[in-house]
Amino acid sequence: MKKLFILFATVFLFSSCQKETDSYTPAIDFKGDKKASQLIAGDNEFAFELFKEVHNLTDEENYMVSPLSVAIALGMTYNGADGTTKTAFEETLGFSGFTRHEINEIHGALINHLLKADPKVTFEIANSIWVNKNYTLLTEFSDSNSYYYNADINSIDFYEQGAVDIINNWISDKTHEKITEVLDAIPPATVMYLINALYFYGSWQYEFDTKMSGPMNFTYDDGSTAKVDGMTTTAGLAFVNEEKFTAIELPYGNDKFSMVIMLPRSEYNIEDVIDELSVESWGNWTADLSETEITLNMPKFKYEFKTLLNDHLTNMGLGVAFGGGAEFPLMVEESQDLYISRVIHKTFIDVNEEGTEAAAVTVVEMVNTSVGDGPLSVTIDRPFLYTIREKTSGTLVFMGKVGRPGV
After folding, report:
1. To the nearest 10°, the Cα dihedral for 89, 94, 98, 101?
2. Alpha-carbon distance 67 to 311, whole Å?
């Protein structure tokens, strides 16, 4: 059976040459290896649940997530978790029943597999860890993420001017400038960023004829219609009619990667299809795909999407990682009081006659419950009081208020 990947859950898998490192390279038979198959099933279940959460919590009409990017970034973070936080990661990400070593080995092999899956598809995975120079990563945490996830380890001064630009430039470079300016500032007490970046470019195996491109009708959620830019192809495409939708598979490159479009039937809507998404149902649907000669008309589209995943992941069971009771004792030497402050996710996609270009970034921001490690940002932007005192005697020499500063 063809290996399938879905746009709808946007688990973008890609292939390209990544820089030479000492990263984990042994191959795993993902169809024949029971443990690997079980972990990938857990990853996919996480993908569907995450997609449902994003759908439920966004007001955007166009949105896209990369569960792969989120899973990789959280997988690196998991290597620093222990206790109830470690358990929450395992239950949320589908890691239950696996040792930390098994999870790292399978994910390392999966990354290696994806990078080499199709030479006709450009796919790049980049991981990095940025730690405040006042902190020292524990060796096992650093080595595991460097080895299995090929993560670049960087120590910088978060409070120096330009630190935000350094991290954003790394993201921009790794996504071919499709995703930029993910961070706008580094909050006080930030200890670390764990970042995954993905880039994908795949040409259609059956390209759309630009001579056939032109306006097409499109009906929006509210029932109104409009003309949009459309494109057309005629080819033997995998196709299936299910109860609530029609699915068509569009292969890229050597048919190792594909986009599966799921179009609700007229009596159903997007919510009806999303409600059915699960590992089991997805397996059944894709098994029913069969090749049929089809003339396909579809809109071209291009957009970006950015969201904060804190609420989504909390709803999925990872709330303990976002509070003061989080347990991340395996990350740095200096502090045991780390928790996740933000999980920032940003994606980009462009679909046209030639193929698909897409990118995703996931940033996990770790902070310390104590703020004393770096300068605290304070802005005096409203009326204030002040004193002038003599310190030895404790005498207050002046006291005042400034309500309208000026000279």
Report:
1. -60
2. 15
